[in-house]
Structure formats: C-alpha cells, structure tokens
Amino acid sequence: MTEIQTFNLQEKKVDDDSINSNERDLFEYDQENNSSNDLSSDDKSYSDDDLTIVEGSDYALGRKVHLINNALDEIGFTWYHAQLFCIAGFGYSVDSQMAMIQSAVKTYVDYQMKGGGYPVATEIYFGGLILGSILFGFGADLIGRKLAFNSSLLLSATFGFFTGGTSSYAMYSIFMFLSTVSAGGNLATDVAVFMEYLPSKYQYLNTSMAAWWGVGQTIASLISWAFIPNNSCSSAENCHSSINRGWRYCWYTNSGIVMGAALIRLFVLQLDETPKFLVSTGRDKEAYETIMKISRKYNRPCSLTLEQLLECGEIEPTYYDPKKYTTFKNALKELWKTTLVNIKILFSKKVVIRSTILIMFSWLFIGISYSVFYNFLYIYIASHGGSTGSTPYLVYRNSTIANFVGIFGPILGGYLILIPKVGRRGTMIFGSLAGMAILFGYTTVRTPSGDAGFGAATYFFINIYYACLYAYTPEVFPTKARTTGVALCLVADRISSAFAPVTYWYGEKSGSSVPIWVCGAIIGCLSIFAFFMPFEPGKGKRSV
C-alpha cells in the first residue's frame, strides 16, 4: 500500500488502525468526494492514475485534469515538446546566468563606481529575485502562464543592456534590479509550462531539464573568462571606464543571448496557453482546441472530445476572471482575493500541508547553504594559507570547468528517478548527502587544481538534488496554485540567499570555518525533508 493510494469506500473496508497518517488523509478525501458526487466506479477511477488529492475538494477539476493527461499521453512526445524543452529550459539558463554575471562583475563595478564596502548591489540583486518570483509566479496562476513566459526574458534582456551602459552605482543598481525582477519571475513559470504539456511517460525530463542551469552557468563563466581578465582594473585606484570595460562587455553579451532566446519564444515557438491552466479557469473549449491543435499539427491520434470535458461539471469559481471587472480598483481587489484562495489551496489538507511545508523548508535550506558556501569558501581557503588561483584567468577557468561538469548532474538525476526503488525522493536524498560530503571535503583545498576538482564534484552532486527539487515542486502542487506554490518556494530560497552577503562581509574578517560546516550540515538535513515528503509522482502516479 503506497502513501498516495486512495480508497474506494464502496469496494473496500479499511481497518482504521492499519492506516498511517498520510493514508488517513487520502481516505478522508475520497470519503468527502464520494459522499458529494454520485459517480460510477469508472468515474472515480481517475484518482488511481493522477495525484488528484492535491486538487483539494474540486472534484470536477480533478476529472478534467485526468482527461487532459490521457489526451497528452495519447498524443505522445512531439517536436513541439522538444522545442519547449529547449526554450523553457533556457529559463533555467537565464536565472543562473544572471547570478553568475552579477557575481563575476561585482568587484570591478565596485572598483570603478563604489570603491569597496558592503556589497549593496548583491542585496539589491536578491531583492529583484524575490519581487520577480512574487509578481510573475502569482501572476501566472491569475492571468496565465503564456504572458509571464513570453515577457520575462524580453524584459530581462532589455534592462540588462541598460545595466551595461550605466555610469553611476545608483543607476547600475536600479537597472540590474529591474533586469533581475524579470529573470527571477521567469523561473517560476518555465518548469510549470513544460510539465503541463508533457506526456507522463516523459516526466523524467522535468528533472533533466535542469541541465540548462549548468549550461547557463557555463555560458556566464565563459563570458567572464573572455572579458574580465584583460579588460579590467586591478584595484580601485585610477579605475576609469576606458580601462575597465570588461564588466560592460559581460552584461552586453549576456543580454544579447537572452534577447535571442526571448525572440525565439515570441516568433518561433509561439506558445499557446497550457490546457491545464485553461480548464482550471473554466475555459474548457480553449483547452480542447489547444490539445487538438497539437494533435492535428503532428498527425497524432487524440480521442478527447469537448463533451467529455463539459460532462465533468463546473469547477469551483475560485479563479480570477478579468472579464467580470470593469474598474481597476475592483480588479485589484479580486486579484488579491484570488491570490489568497490559491495560497489556501496549498494548505487545504493535512497531507498537502505536510508536502507544502517540507518543500518550502527544502528551498529555504538550500538557498542559504548554497549561496553562503560559495560566497564564503574562497575567504576561508585564503585565510588558511591556500590559493585557488592568484589570477583572474585561473579563477574563471576553474569556474568554467566546474559549471560545465555541473550540466551532467541533472542528467544523472533524470535517470535515477526512473529506478523504482529510488524515485524522486531517493534521488534527492542521494544528491543532498553526496553534496554534503563533497562540501566538507572542499575545506581541504589549497591549490588551483584542487579547487577545479572539488568545484566540479560539488556542482555535479548538488545539481542532482537541485534538479530533482525543481521538478518535484510543481509536480505535486495543485493546478490552480501551481506557480503560486513555486513562487513561494523561490521567495523562501531567495530570502535565505540574501544572507550570503552578510556572511561574506563578516567572514572576510574572521576566516572561521564554522559557516562552511554549518552549510554542509544544512545540505545534509535536506535528505531528512526528502524522506518525509508524502508524494512520489513517478511510481504509477501522474502529476496534475
């Protein structure tokens, strides 16, 4: 008996003492639905294939999602999905590129405009990520995935060009913040969009898609390696723009790459709104037409009919409908009301509450440990007699090697989740424990070659965990509140990451090894969270 098995009251009598806490929640859920819906056995069987428990009490929506999953499975994997894998995956790439570029140019921007002191721009960067996660993440559940998906990269690239052309620290911080807001919101929608189109047989690609995270880091490292060493000041003394243009070239080049991806999204892929979002907002006809469009374009069979969707009944009217509101004030009021409803959905049942809390704490812990470690590590090594690279060339070379190796962590993660006895939770446990061991070992590094080796291993194993967590998070969140849930997780991650500059600032003076060991221990604790997560979508269960 699995944790996510539901029980048919008309067919089974369950001994109360034999039900664990998770199964009891699922039992109560089915009891509520059976008592309020006079359905045949076949009608109720949809919950045997899908994680519909997370949809709360909206039984009609659960049935519609089941039909859409059947239709997507019948159509199978197409060239459209392959394109979406690359274009949505590039959203991962942009998020990591922004982090790496900002980190790489920070010192040289300070040399030219600020002269040193507390890393204010880094805190502003995290502030942009937090705001972007809220605006785009919540917005994607309110007004649709398509708008957030198509606009985020375009806005990020546009403001990125302006960032590279600034001549004061204040203007640099403002435009970097605006660019980061857009990039930060992008990540909340990418994996949700891809997952809501993906046939269940290929759900492992949700995890493997995080390989694009490593691609983005590698791109950013190569850009920095190309421009920083030979086009930058060595100190804040006499650091004029004419001899310190490397950081500008980094922003221009990165923004150009992001703009290229944004234009591909707009003019090549031409994404339609996802069918699952459409049915969650009462637009069954549009959802049906979107699925049939893919079926006709790639000559794939699809037996879904509009009548089948309509026969499922009306969903609960808890979604935002802009057509109902004629004034801006009323629209804002309804947006706020609907957002609160979506948040409540994430805490609607005991088992769902448990899942939501464990996932959010996982994001909180990985955010603070990952960011603090990489900001503090080189300070610790230098203070204990080591040198991981006395020149910018060696620093960026090692970074490029490590990030390139990190690409293959999510690929291995995608394979591991297919192993029945491992699954998503087992993969996260393995990734977190292996990452902890490597991080502890990293404290022994004293040479450039050691830095390159341990850096590559660290990125590889931690990216296994990161990739699986990124994919698992939207898989187990309800359809109506999917990107809201992802947004809350990203906010938790980025609030905790904002403590990295504080550690950097004080760690630079103390050189203590305590932050490194604490971060390693926190990453190890993630395995405990993964062990107690209640859902395992891959074991005969399709995500909603």
UniProtKB/TrEMBL annotation:
* Superkingdom classification of source: Eukaryota
Where does this protein reside within or beyond the cell? Membrane
Gene3D superfamilies noted in UniProt: MFS general substrate transporter like domains (1.20.1250.20)
Q: Any idea where the Major facilitator superfamily (MFS) profile domain is?
A: 81-538
A GO cellular component annotated for this chain's UniProt record is: membrane
Alphabetically sorted, this entry's keywords are: Membrane, Transmembrane, Transmembrane helix, Transport
Query: Which residues span the membrane?
Result: 124-140, 147-164, 170-198, 210-228, 251-268, 357-381, 401-419, 426-444, 456-473, 513-535
Kindly give the InterPro entries that the UniProt entry links to this protein: MFS, MFS_dom, MFS_trans_sf
| PROSITE patterns in the cross-refs | MFS
SUPFAM superfamilies, sorted: MFS general substrate transporter (SSF103473)
Main location, first listed in the record: membrane
Does Transferase show up as a keyword for this record?
A: no
Instruction: Quote one Gene Ontology molecular function term.
Output: transmembrane transporter activity
UniProt protein name = Major facilitator superfamily (MFS) profile domain-containing protein
The lineage, from the top, is: Eukaryota, Fungi, Dikarya, Ascomycota, Saccharomycotina
